[in-house]
Design brief:
single chain, about 350 residues, Rossmann fold, 3 domains, 6-stranded parallel beta sheet, 6-stranded antiparallel β-barrel
Length: about 350
């Protein structure tokens, strides 16, 4: 069932608050039941942000947009529906640790920015504001952060934030300072509980560790969806074709993206660009590793898409990692490898 509401509401001038409230409520129903406008993404502050309606704001990296984060998103949407407002997530790019950390290269993320956009839109968020994070922004005083950033650009009705949130130069701003400014400037501050924040921190750590250790079951359970990444299809040595398992070799554009460890995985694949684009998830299997049976030198990510023979060089794939099938091992020769790949394919086909 598809219900198209935006065209109807767009055609109504001088919308009443009752109509707006109904539309807001509709746009927070499960997305399988309706169609409404996509999440708006804003990359600049000055002169580009709209006048938000009763802005319900939270701030954070939301890396992974996992089950813990999803509780915060649900709280935001509930509050927005109550006050006929809009949900706004403020995040930062690049990741603040890349700017302020003494080891900036040591940042591995569950989501690239484009992946985060996809997940937040699916969650039903109205606006994502990506703030360029640099030393100038990091050196704002806590008062400047509230007055010249949060209040100036967002005019929040409600800020939902962790009790331990720190901001401003030297991390001198806190929840209580926000409450004081809220009384002065006219916005509410609502707390994300310590229990939920601890759950989020534990989940994020557990997910990263699980992915690194190939424990995809644990990672996916904590995420609430299959872990995924995107890569560009590049030319390989085409050896897979000679043994009946042609593969798409992937180049991962983001150095920050956390990639599972070496092994063979059951996957689902989406083709994202050009004439072969599809939103259908195609079954397949993926190898990450050095291919010890062949050369054992260069690490590769290669995906065999089942029952698929189109040429897709230069296109992008989104790979959803369902389960690890086995570790990468060295076989006695190509025939032994081919036999094992047949077993791997049968196992992958059984995984939903």
């Amino acid at each position: 069932m598809l219900i198209v509401f935006d065209v109807i509401f767009f055609s109504i001038s001088n919308q009443t608050s009752e109509i707006l409230h109904l539309r807001s409520a509709i746009c927070h129903l499960p997305r399988t039941l309706y169609f409404c406008s996509s999440m708006k993404v804003h990359r600049e502050l000055a002169g580009s942000l709209p006048e938000f309606r009763n802005a319900v704001v939270t701030i954070g990296t939301f890396d992974g947009v996992h089950k813990g984060h999803q509780q915060i998103l649900a709280q935001m949407k509930e509050e927005a529906a109550r006050i006929n407002g809009e949900t706004i997530i403020i995040t930062f790019h690049p990741h603040p640790r890349k700017i302020v950390s003494s080891v900036p290269g040591d940042v591995k993320l569950l989501n690239t920015l484009s992946e985060k956009k996809l997940l937040l839109e699916k969650a039903g968020i109205d606006h994502l504001v990506v703030v360029p994070f640099d030393h100038h922004f990091a050196n704002q005083s806590a008062d400047e952060y509230v007055r010249d950033f949060l209040y100036k650009y967002f005019k929040p009705h409600t800020i939902i934030i962790g009790y331990d949130h720190r901001f401003g130069k030297g991390r001198t701003g806190d929840y209580h300072l926000l409450e004081d400014f809220g009384k002065e400037l006219g916005f509410e501050v609502k707390e994300i509980t310590e229990q939920l924040l601890n759950e989020i921190a534990v989940s994020s750590t557990r997910i990263r560790k699980a992915i690194t250790e190939n424990d995809i079951d644990t990672a996916n359970a904590a995420l609430g969806y299959p872990y995924f990444f995107e890569g560009l299809v590049i030319e390989g040595n085409q050896l897979g074709r000679t043994i009946g398992y042609p593969t798409a070799n992937l180049h991962i554009g983001s150095e920050e993206k956390l990639i599972p460890g070496n092994g063979v995985y059951a996957v689902q694949v989406e083709i994202l660009s050009d004439q072969n684009s599809t939103q259908q998830k195609l079954k397949g299997m993926m190898n990450i590793g050095i291919r010890p049976t062949i050369d054992g030198k260069k690490k590769v990510i290669e995906v065999n898409i089942f029952d698929f023979d189109a040429t897709i060089y230069g296109q992008s794939l989104r790979v959803h990692v369902l389960k690890q099938l086995r570790n990468e091992i060295k076989f006695e020769g190509l025939e032994a490898l081919k036999t094992q790949l047949g077993i791997d394919k049968l196992q992958a086909l059984q995984i939903k």
